[in-house]
Structures are given as C-alpha cells and as structure tokens.
Write a structure and sequence with these properties.
heterodimer; A: 140 residues; mainly alpha; Non-ribosomal Peptide Synthetase Peptidyl Carrier Protein, Chain A; 2 domains; 5 helices; B: 6-stranded antiparallel sheet; 37% strand
Chain lengths: 140, 172
C-alpha cells in the first residue's frame, strides 16, 4: 500500500464518521442519520449547526500530513440573495441554477428544477451530500 | 447595563485559553428565587446552572473576541454541551476555563471546564463541562443594520480586562 492509498477511506467509513458527527452536532439518534436524511428538514439543523458540522468535519478528516480545510461557502454558498443574476423573485434563475450545480456538486438538484425557491435549497443537503462532499475532497 | 457573571480573569493565553472566577455571594438577589430543599426540608439557595453557562459564555466570548482584538460582535450561538454534575452554593467560587477549539470568519467553537472550590479548602474540584459556539454576526448578517460601535464588548467587558492587567486588549 502506498502512502497516498493509506489515507483513503472507504465510502462506508466516511459515512460512519459523518454519522457520528451528525449525532454529536445535532443531538440526533444514530438511526435518524440515514443517507437520505435532509440536514434541515429531517435532522432540524439550523444555520449555526452548519458551522459546527464544518468544524467537526475538518477535525475528523484531517491528518498531520493532509489537513482537511473547508473554505467559507464551500459546503454551502453564502449571500445568495445579494446577486440579482442568481436570484429573481425568491427563485433561482438559470444562471443561479448553473452556479449551484457548479459550486455544489455534492448536492442532487434533479428534483429542484421546477421549484427553485431559495428558501428550500438548504433542504436539499442530505447526509449523502456530506458524504459525497468529503469523498470528493479526500480524493481530489 | 449588562450583567457580568464573572468577577475576574485570572489567566489568559492569547488565542488559546482564558480562565475566570466567580465568587457566589449569599447577597445575590436571584438566590432568593432559586433553591432546593436540604435534608430537613428547608430551602437551600443554589447557584443556577444557567448562569454558569452565561459565565462560561462571557469567559469564552472574551477569549474569542480577543483573537480579532474585539473588532467583531461575538454572539453566543449554540450550547453544544452543558453538563454540570453538582450544585454550587453561596460562599463557594466557580472557575471557568475556556479553550479555543476553532475559529474562522463565521464564528468559533470553544471547550470549557467548570470547577468549584469550597473555602477554606483550596483545591478546585471539577464539576462539569460547557462547550459553546459563537457567531461573528457582523459577518453572518451582512444584510442587517448593526450599530457602528461594538455593542457586545461594551464598557463592562473592558473594565474586567483592565482589572486583569489586560489593558492592551481593552483599549484597542
């Protein structure tokens, strides 16, 4: 096994670590943390919980040789309403949808094309999104 | 007027940890409304655990604010963990030790240990943990209007810093 391979985690190992983080950060039970669970609508995460989760992900997945640093807005873009190119009348424009898909490849937007309500985009972030996010960063 | 729930800062390591103490006086008026019964059924005033959370929030909040020399409004955003294992009574003192766990532009997380001492004993006894998260609201609510002055770290905080010999931090 090479040094690079030694730090690669399996998807299930990532899920188990993410599950522990959700239990601690959100005070939920293990069985509630399914891959399909939405962080906001199912696990009742609030905005500060996202920062808590980011801090815990960084700590959990960092190694002395490979720091796991999440930049502000990397997991979830911020200040979306401030850009009129992205949002019109509380809904994402075509440009807004393109931006979301580019900046959030860890989120499944397939059921969001018709809705596009800004307030609902956070609901799309599931436990699976977080596992995808971590997996992409670890293998980047 | 802001109520302070710590008396003194006794230790400070920049960007790392801060320790503050609070002596619980029998004269503090809220004790008349917060008590349990003793073995004879008489009312026994007890220091409220909620005020221990506030004491830790003030200790940890000053530590977090000091990182950016109090330029930002630092607000308690989440009580991650609060576990107090035994009561504190008038005449005893509480020690709040806050350690900075993580900080970035959006906010910070801290870990805290709570101890008590029962004079004339001098050994601090661990009685619990309080882990918190703070938000830098100037960063997170850019669409809202806030006063120009720093309304979190007002004069009462600065007085405590000066009394601890941390004038350099207080007068920035």
């Amino acid at each position: 096994m090479t040094e690079t391979e030694s730090v690669v985690m399996t998807r299930d190992e990532i899920f188990q670590a993410v599950r522990s983080i959700m239990e601690e950060a959100l005070g939920v039970d293990e069985e509630e943390v399914t891959l399909e669970a939405s962080l906001t609508s199912d696990l009742e995460a609030e905005s500060i919980d996202f920062l808590d989760i980011v801090f815990r992900l960084e700590k959990s997945f960092s190694t002395p040789d490979h720091p796991f640093k999440i930049e502000q807005g990397e997991l979830f873009p911020e200040n979306l309403l401030e850009n009129p190119e992205w949002v019109a009348d509380t809904k994402f424009t075509e440009a807004g949808m393109t931006m979301l898909k580019e900046r959030m490849p860890h989120v499944d937007f397939s059921g969001f094309e018709n809705d596009r309500e800004v307030d609902k985009v956070a609901e799309l972030i599931t436990v699976n999104s977080i596992v995808d996010f971590v997996e992409r960063k670890l293998t980047a | 007027m802001r109520w302070m729930w710590i008396d003194r800062i006794i230790e400070f390591e920049a960007n790392t940890r801060m320790v503050a103490v609070k002596a619980v006086s029998p004269n503090e008026d809220y004790l008349a409304d917060h008590f349990r019964d003793d073995e004879r059924g008489a009312a026994l005033p007890v220091y409220p655990a909620s005020l221990m959370i506030e004491g830790m929030a003030q200790t940890a909040g000053i530590l977090v604010g000091s990182v950016n020399r109090f330029r930002e409004n630092v607000i308690l955003a989440k009580v991650v963990l609060a576990q107090i294992d035994c009561d504190v009574f008038p005449g005893q003192s509480i020690r709040f030790e806050a350690r900075l766990d993580r900080i970035d532009k959006s906010g910070a997380s801290t870990r805290g240990a709570v101890h008590r001492v029962n004079p004339p004993e001098t050994d601090w006894q661990p009685i619990g943990r309080i882990d918190l998260m703070f938000s830098h609201i100037d960063t997170n609510n850019s669409g809202l209007d806030f006063p120009q002055e720093n309304f979190v770290f007002a004069e009462s905080f600065r007085t405590i810093l000066r009394e601890a010999g941390l004038e350099q931090l207080a007068d920035t």
